[in-house]
């Protein structure tokens, strides 16, 4: 459980944090206030009129106890402390204030290739630099070489390594450096892309300037071809009450896919995961959410490499199901939510484990559907009710959409 005065920012915020700490976002020294963020979005300036292209903000849960004057330790996903944020303002979840580094950034790929603007400027030793920011491979090195010769400048490659495509961008930059030769410099920059292309380019200009560039060439945007569905990773996530039939249908789907033999299948049953991956967790909301996140993480990792993962937990809370969807989509996989919407009365009638009877008797606290809520999905991709239908029909109601959607051949 995270201490009240510690926090792990999300991936975009971690990238922004690193750029704040290393000076690539100068003159910014911390996360923006609500007024600054609003002014940037509306006018392209901070509240005091200083030009700046994009909001740089940190969001904490609204129930987080941090208040103005508090110092929050910001950690990476592995728990290593990165910085201390001194809270200057809270506006809902938006938390503003200056940040102080606690050590060098080591999270993410290619940490050894990160260079601060000060380090690059020192190596330039007053020479002109042509910065080339990259989100994909460089198509035309001749233009870069010609421009650098015209300016009598050193080429500085700035691969913008963020997200799943980050390592590929860095590899492309290393290959370009080898071909350009000479004293070409390289610094990995964890700059997350902005939705507005013009804003993204302006922010890249700012970062290039911070690194000492006299001129900036933005590399071409990468062309992303997602590939046919049967080659993409897929998470099929079942949710429903205990006794709804979700585990039975999930096992039937697993068997049907294994019989076809066209996909690599990982099956994560809720009860099995409880005994292994989540051993020791209880049934409080926090522990149940953590159990679902662990299932989602493993499923996303399986899907990351083109596998098909089947999950069958109860997953009663919409927010946690949304987190799992985001995990899958963040690694480039598809996600299908299957709501096994068998009514509570039918689930109780089945009650082969005697769980509902014990919950009604008050022997099982926080039991979903009885003493703890089940939030019915509003975003389900497939809805089935297993009342009175053969298991084969229920399995087909999930398998057929997978075939029709091209995920299974």
From TrEMBL:
Gene3D superfamilies: P-loop containing nucleotide triphosphate hydrolases, Sulfate adenylyltransferase
Enzyme Commission number, as recorded: 2.7.1.25
Pfam family, one: PUA_2
Start and end residues of each ATP-sulfurylase PUA-like domain: 10-89
Enzyme class: transferase
Keyword Isomerase: no
Keyword annotations from UniProtKB, A to Z: ATP-binding, Nucleotide-binding, Transferase
One GO process term, biological-process aspect: sulfate assimilation, phosphoadenylyl sulfate reduction by phosphoadenylyl-sulfate reductase (thioredoxin)
Span of the signal peptide: none
Pathway(s) served: Sulfur metabolism; hydrogen sulfide biosynthesis; sulfite from sulfate: step 2/3
Catalytic reaction list: adenosine 5'-phosphosulfate + ATP = 3'-phosphoadenylyl sulfate + ADP + H(+)
SUPFAM superfamilies (alphabetical): P-loop containing nucleoside triphosphate hydrolases (SSF52540), PUA domain-like (SSF88697)
Highest taxon in the source lineage: Bacteria
Record's GO cellular component terms: cytoplasm
NCBIfam families xrefs: apsK, PRK03846.1
Function, as annotated: Catalyzes the synthesis of activated sulfate.
Protein name listed in UniProt: adenylyl-sulfate kinase
């Amino acid at each position: 459980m995270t201490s009240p005065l510690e926090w792990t920012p999300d991936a975009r915020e971690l990238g922004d944090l690193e750029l704040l700490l290393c000076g690539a976002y100068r003159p910014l020294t911390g996360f923006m206030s609500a007024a600054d963020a609003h002014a940037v979005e509306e006018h392209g300036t901070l509240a005091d009129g200083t030009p700046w292209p994009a909001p740089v903000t940190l969001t904490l849960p609204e129930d987080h106890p941090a208040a103005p004057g508090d110092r929050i330790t910001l950690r990476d996903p592995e728990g290593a402390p990165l910085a201390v944020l001194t809270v200057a303002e809270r506006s809902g979840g938006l938390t503003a204030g200056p940040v102080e580094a606690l050590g060098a950034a080591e999270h993410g790929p290619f940490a050894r290739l990160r260079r601060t603007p000060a380090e690059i400027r020192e190596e330039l030793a007053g020479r002109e630099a042509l910065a080339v920011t990259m989100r994909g491979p460089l198509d035309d090195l001749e233009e870069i070489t010609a421009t650098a010769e015209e300016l009598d400048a050193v080429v500085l490659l700035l691969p913008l390594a963020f997200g799943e495509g980050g390592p590929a961008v860095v590899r492309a930059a290393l290959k370009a450096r080898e071909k350009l030769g000479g004293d070409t410099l390289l610094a990995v920059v964890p700059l997350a892309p902005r939705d507005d292309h013009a804003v993204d380019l302006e922010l890249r200009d700012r970062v290039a300037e911070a690194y000492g560039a006299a001129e900036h060439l933005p590399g071409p945007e990468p062309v992303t071809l997602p590939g046919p569905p049967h080659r993409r990773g897929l998470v099929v996530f079942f949710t429903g009450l205990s006794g709804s039939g979700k585990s039975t249908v999930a096992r039937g789907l697993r068997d049907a896919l294994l019989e076809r033999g066209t996909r690599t299948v990982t099956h994560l049953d809720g009860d099995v995961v409880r005994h292994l991956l989540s051993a020791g967790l209880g049934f409080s909301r926090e522990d149940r959410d953590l159990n679902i996140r662990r299932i989602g993480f493993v499923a996303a990792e399986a899907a990351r490499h083109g596998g098909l993962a089947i999950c069958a937990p109860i997953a009663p809370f919409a927010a946690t199901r949304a987190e799992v969807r985001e995990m899958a989509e963040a690694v480039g996989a598809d996600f299908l939510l299957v709501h096994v919407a068998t009514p509570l009365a039918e689930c109780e009638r089945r009650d082969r484990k005697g769980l509902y009877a014990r919950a009604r008797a008050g022997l099982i606290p926080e039991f979903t559907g009885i003493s703890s809520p089940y939030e019915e999905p509003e975003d389900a991709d497939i809805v089935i009710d297993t009342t009175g239908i053969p298991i084969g029909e229920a399995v087909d109601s999930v398998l057929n959409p997978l075939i029709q959607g091209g995920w299974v051949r």
